Fold this protein.
Amino acid sequence: MRLRRARGRWIRLAVLIAAVAMVGNSGPAWGTADDPTENGEQPEPTMGNIVPEPVSVQPTSAHYRITADTTIRVQAASAAVARIGEQLAAALRRSTGYPLPVISGAEPGRDTISLLLSGAEVGAEGYRLDVTGNGVVIRANEPAGLFNGVQTLRQLLPAAADSASEQPGPWLVPGGHVMDHPRFGYRGAMLDVARHFFPVADVERFIDEISLYKINYLHLHLSDDQGWRIAVAGWPNLTDYGSTTEVGGGAGGYYTQEQYQQIVAYAKAHYVTIVPEIDGPGHTNAALASYPDLNCDGVAPPLYTGIEVGFSSFCVNKDETYTFLNDVIGELARLTPGPYLHVGGDEAESTTAEDYSTFEGKVLPLVTEHGKTAMGWHELAKADPPTSVVTEYWGTTSTDAPTAAAAARGNKIVMAPANKAYLDQKYNEDTKLGLKWAAYIEVADAYNWDPATYLTGVGESSVLGVEAPLWSETLVTMANIEYLAFPRLPAIAELGWSPQSSHNWSSFQRRLGAQGPRWTAMGINFYASPQIPWAPGSIGGSD
Ligand code: TNX
């Protein structure tokens, strides 16, 4: 380590001399007032700051320098790999100003970043990354693995590489070898677009942000009491009327089917699978307001803009309810390439237990009939669902008998305990945004739990993965979303990806601190938690 530090000093000195020589030439010089690192010195690039922590990292004393001559070489005959190469090139062209041509079919050689579908026994999402003086080689079995390897490579570069405008460099990649693959197959984030509506551009930016941390599912909460957010053929009132408000009485909004498909495609290009949710039997006021026939008394309630829960219910004993849900589920199944449709099922406080079971007994088969796997909140476990159904645990206790019984029967569980994984809970009593019914959740609280031992009777083999839900009762802007998601989302991402044996709070603190300048370079509005030693150049945001 001492050797590496000494080497780092030499590199910095050489770099400083080069930078001084550059003053007066084109491009910004170091040490100007614009320079967030104050003294113009960049931190030594290191392989040790990756989030989520890889399975194995072996640093060497080599380094590779990306220059104007660097090329990106991609496997011939794979459009998906070519696209990943173009994504990497696009990100780095902006900040480096280099041409970084993406060349297909060539062998790895000097001065290349190669993306190869070969020679890596790391499963469908894993990768190997090797950095030598000659360049960078990322190998994977599948394009998803190459995409994940590229996210790691981006974190090896100086934070300025994530800037949208040209920066001075130099662009050193620390030498070494990474071998990596995920602990869990499901690593999710959830965005509530029902309580407040967020346009396509915001959802796409959120996808950009979650995919940096190898999150591979985005659950969209598309309906609730306050709004219906997706067009469904044959049911125009849902969008003409049911979408027209949100919490606080704003204008609301909805995605056309084309817009939803745009989100799905954007997610796919970032190796994120969309999980659409239509909630029921509760959280349904917007639908009930749109169609009187869905109500037992045939009377449509007014639209709702408050934040109470538990007051609405589909009429369980009417055929119209299932005609409606069959159409909705069928449309969503048609528009969604991913395997899961989420049917909600939470907080059905205005539905009797018997009606709840009747309802789920009719709705869950509809999902299967339309070729998808049903997901739902953990209350579903009480309705004795088929073992193919995935339940999502959002409780705050470490025991839940129905969920443990479901796990024993063979159901898979996604872990999203509200007092750990809920991104909408305040950090502390001073946080303006968010709610606090489950807990104040500081970074250490979000990080320090194990998805495979948290819930009694739900062990590693029953856990499909983790999810970090972001409910939007108090969120109006993208900056609001970012403030609650960062830095806790990367904590949950690490619980989903990294081996439990690598779980270490002080390592995480340091590695998370190194993300701060990247978020600043990307314009992400994050909470600069006092628990984290933020690296120079980190500028925290505000709520
Ligand atoms: C509970 S958690 C809910 C949501 C709220 C959230 C606020 C769950 C499945 N339901 O309806 O938005 O609390 O934190």
Remarks:
- DSSP finds 16 helices and 17 strands in the chain.
- Residues 64 and 173 are 5 Å apart (CA to CA).
- The longest strand covers residues 56-66.
